[in-house]
Automatic annotation (TrEMBL):
Family: Belongs to the sirtuin family. Class I subfamily.
Organism: Penicillium alfredii
CC terms in the record's Gene Ontology section: nucleus
SUPFAM superfamilies in the record: DHS-like NAD/FAD-binding domain (SSF52467)
Name of protein: SIR2 family histone deacetylase
Amino acid sequence: RPVIAPADLQSFTEYLRGCKRILALLGAGISASSGLPTFRGAGGLWRSYDATSLATPEAFEANPGLVWQFYSYRRHMALKAEPNKAHYALAELSKKNKDFITLSQNVDGAGLHFTSLCLSQRAHHPSDQLHLLHGSLFNIKCTSFYCNYSRNNDFTDPIVPSLAIPQSTPDPTPSTADRIGEEAARSFHHALNQGKITHHAASANEIDISDERNSIPELTRDDLPLCPKCNNGLLRPGVVWFGESLPMDTLKTVDHWIHAAPKVDLMLVIGTSSRVWPAAGYVDEARAKGARVAVINMDPNDIPGRTVGLDQGDWFFQGDAGVIVPEILK
Ligand code: BJW
């Protein structure tokens, strides 16, 4: 259980009481205790692949079967996941304070105003105070340059039969193939075993397809979801990959919120490595508007902002967001 220094907790809660305009930035770490893997560090591996290397248009172009299996697994996990206490605590704060907005880099749900299906929304986070920066696993669009087909809220699991999670007994023999990142995988499982992260395991008869010892089927184009409109392009998840633009309307709304008043009082940076732009840049923008910053992270090296380390008046709460966030927002 993380230890929160009483003096830090007291100064934070006193300051929070007087805050009007609050901005939160969420990353994968907030959902770690809901059983969803992170991107970097412990847990940032899908089989032997670095998750970030699969999140690019180039990776999809080169091997759509591999990338679809990664996303099909992520859709499956997201559908099974439950919001944790951090999602609920942020939702509560949002309901009390209409000047509080949350920017989420997570893609675990649809995020449309008329649905309530990402983890934050399932915790009853008001949708108009939640902005999804990197899209959703459940939005689907055509990859053809000439086709504008997209559909929202596709919760079919699997999206096509060939992407079903295999149900037979996994081969227990460790692969001698690529061992990159084994150490990271080990430390993730160590954290799981220590109860630092709780993991919603797949059903007992499902193969854990995040386990690199289980072989990855080679899928052809014919096995993958095809656009029903143009019958030519492959479908892809509507997430924002590296090199792609974030949704312009979302960027404009956030920009407008930041500049709508002379001051931002507080920025909460929760469970993100703050390495990905433009999301990482919001901390400096909020600081420039006078915000004090509170970072909640397992790893003290993941402090955001261009200046190394925390500014005077910032807080760092180390530990599981699922424990710390409800504690400090109480
Ligand atoms: C816990 C915990 C627990 C664990 N409790 N904590 C400026 C400078 C340099 C580069 C760029 C720049 N501007 C743009 C770029 C390029 C690029 C970029 O940022 N590159 C950097 C990596 C160098 N950015 C882009 O390409 C962006 N696009 C863009 O800028 O487009 C411009 C453009 C304009 C107009 C036309 C065309 C283009 C797009 C970025 C998209 C990122 N996409 C991904 C994949 C989404 C789909 C998917 O989910 O598969 O988003 S990458 C991945 O990283 C994902 C995440 O949302 C994102 C952030 O990761 P996050 O959430 O921080 O996770 P982790 O794993 O990194 O960290 C987890 C943290 O939690 C760690 O700190 C742990 O310690 C902690 N933790 N357990 C608390 N229990």
